[in-house]
């Protein structure tokens, strides 16, 4: 059986990196591809599983091929197309292309070649071979709901926590965590994160055994705090836009895969393409809460309320631990050295849109925390640092 | 003898045909060598027509299912090593299912038996392993549809493994016109009569195979569709007017009148329990055939074989 999990070293020696793409650029391409699949899928009314399956195919594909050889939006369309069939929610190839055309601007659409449908069809076979026909993919959503069903405690808080974790899972698809950890572990990590941020501490759960120190001991074994924090970091890093990212030359491969025999000349392309502009489009740091948001998780069945939700020394200790743990999460990026926040860089594919009409004076929503989540503890400098202090004009 | 080469991305799909092992109802199986490591494998080749929407959904679903099945690592099912594909010149897609290869199948095994035949214990064990494998396939919504001794492989440890499953639906729709000579001996009557069928076709075939273990020759060695049905009716009795399918042009009167018999009348060495189990499994009415799981719970399997 092929193994679809990679260590950090392997993720630094991907075909794209060996082909001269920088690590950061590759990560950006992956993020753009994933978000494009989510947006395309959402517009077409596809479910979260189909979109997530498509994104996982996308990430796996580029563990074998370079972004220079295979233009990412063609691959993204193909992944969504194949995922649709596998998840029994098929969409016609030409409808996917039509939707893609509505999202991407003409400059970008060049990578689909003269016969976009043929490009995607040809790529389908390459994709199938590359992912070795391992078509069935499990996602953290399933486990998130399964675990949450066992949690005892305030139902409203629980629901809010699950919603937050659900959004984190959506966002995690833009990272490479699915190439590193099983969906069960990702679900544990993101529930852990959401429970800290929403102040819903899981103190008791159905099926608890004396040997369980933490709730996830019931579901996964050998998961260290380091692993969980690594996953949380990768997701939280999405909310940290960096200027560097925005300033990088955009060097998307422009040739359709059928003619991708020679590496694209990036320098020439970066001159031909419009420079990145701040766009007025949805700030995708709030992905999952925009109008293109994937559907929220189904409601949880009622759990019996916790009978020891009160204060006892153990709870207090747990509380303390949580705070320390959040601090340790935050400490990885010292607040003082955080780069100034630029908006919209997460939605890079929008850069290829024609510049939007002059902006209204309205302030832009902060990237994180999203307005929904007013429950974020005020002492969490790390997260607050992601929030611009003042509304920024869209065009400077 | 031409090596298979994966067209697309140079990933290992480098096999060399050795010879045809068998042409089943749903695909041709080759013995082949994996040129990357010298391993001998069995490759099932299925050609599919690409549709307007690429690889058909049913094919993808079936491959997906096979992969999931394989992940369960069931001891009575051959291992699927990998799935490859390449585009043929005529634009059709050739899909290769690369399976574990085992030297011996049940038909070789029966052929090479000493005069004394198989021990009762071995028959019971093979039968149990066969039905356990069939139950596993059925629980994953897979109907084999072509169970026969040639498709049951015997490992060097003497365990039975079901082979040559998968892509039956794909094959069905795409290759119906291909006329291949397929053995009829293990075919259920509803298939011969072109009637709707379900997983119970495998129960029929399993019963034929179990009887063959006792008899050391085929239970219903038909020579044509009609002869096959007639031999079946010799056991089940000719179906009544109300049982005869309305949607078929072949007339019931075309077959001679037959009264039902017992499996024991065909195979005197059957013990009482085996006779009862086989008579249930060989019901003409598909609704009367027990599931594989029910078969395994039958008294025959609860007894020390005599």
Task: Describe the protein's architecture and organization.
The complex is a heterodimer of chains A (396) and B (306). With 396 residues, chain A is mainly α. Among the domains of chain A are: 8-137 and 252-274 and 313-319, Cyclin A, domain 1, CATH 1.10.472.10; 140-247, Orthogonal Bundle (Cyclin A, domain 1), CATH 1.10.472. Helix content of chain A is 45%, strand content 0%. Chain A has helices at residues 8-11, 15-18, 23-43, 48-61, 72-86, 93-103, 106-109, 116-130, 140-148, 155-172, 183-197, 225-237, 243-247, 266-272, 313-331, 381-385. In chain A, helix 3 (23-43) packs across helix 6, helix 4 crosses helix 5 (72-86) and helix 10 crosses helix 11 (183-197). Chain A is globular. Chain A starts with 7 loop residues before the first helix and ends in an 11-residue tail after the last helix. In chain A, 46% of the residues are buried. The model of chain A is unreliable at 243-249, 260-294 and 301-396 (pLDDT under 50). Chain B is built from eleven helices and eight strands. Chain B is globular and about 55 Å long. Chain B has two domains: 3-100, Phosphorylase Kinase, domain 1 (2-Layer Sandwich); 104-301, Transferase(Phosphotransferase), domain 1 (Orthogonal Bundle), CATH 1.10.510.10. Mean pLDDT of chain B is 87; it is low at 1-11 and 173-180. In chain B, a hairpin with a 5-residue loop joins strand 4 and strand 5. With 306 residues, chain B is α+β, with helices and mostly antiparallel strands. In chain B, the strands form two sheets. Chain B has a five-stranded antiparallel beta sheet, with helices on one face. A three-stranded antiparallel beta sheet of chain B has the order 6-7-8. The A-B interface holds A 1, 64-65, 81-82, 85-86, 88, 90, 92-93, 121, 124-126, 128-130, 132-136 and B 6-9, 11, 13, 50, 52-55, 57, 60-61, 63-64, 67-68, 70-71, 82-85, 87, 93.
